[in-house]
Design brief:
3-stranded antiparallel sheet; 7 strands; 4-stranded mixed sheet
């Protein structure tokens, strides 16, 4: 993989160039697709923290999947929001995310089963960021709140991915074989 000075994607690989901006820890990133973003420490506070950017990436990745799938299923969304909360380990460093909770909030004339299936597909098949986090120490809980056209509210857990979780088993822990 090569990384050009401009941060441009090459050969199908995603690239980012990050430059120090000033005397503090403010960083300006240029993505391979040409977009800029600012990150900073709590002391400088002129941009998002890198760990926050990771949660933004997770939210954006799964949201794009779920919305695309629901639109393909011709579900009439009137509002969509995804909320992500991650818990980081204090010690030892690095302060990895050990647990993440994702809640998709969907409103409109939608079928709950369609929402559930869209989230399941994102979590177990399509969302690159989710799959990367779940391949390490992060346990990711996926859930939904659906407010349907009649005004009824439905809540449900969909799947858990991460350590000792099998995406093929939709997040259920593998059963130990009797010896």
């Amino acid at each position: 993989m090569t990384l050009s000075n401009e941060g441009r994607s090459q050969n199908g690989n995603e690239t980012v160039a990050v430059r120090l901006d000033g005397d503090g820890l403010r960083l300006t990133a240029l993505t391979g697709s040409g977009h800029k973003m600012v990150m900073d420490s709590a002391e400088g506070d002129t941009g998002a923290r890198p760990a926050e950017v990771l949660m933004v990436a997770l939210a954006g990745c799964t949201a794009m999947d779920v919305v695309s799938i629901l639109r393909k299923k011709r579900q009439a969304l009137s509002r969509y929001e995804v909320r992500v909360a991650g818990r980081q380990r204090d010690d030892p460093s690095p302060h990895v995310f050990e647990q993440v909770r994702i809640i998709h909030v969907v409103e409109g004339d939608v079928e709950v089963d369609a929402v559930r299936r869209a989230i399941e597909l994102s979590a177990t098949k399509y969302c690159t960021v989710s799959r990367n986090l779940a391949s390490g120490v992060s346990q990711i809980h996926h859930a939904y709140v659906v407010r349907d056209a009649a005004g009824d509210e439905h809540y449900g857990d969909v799947v858990v991915t991460g350590p000792q979780q099998s995406p093929d088993a939709l997040g259920r822990r593998p059963v130990a074989m009797a010896s």
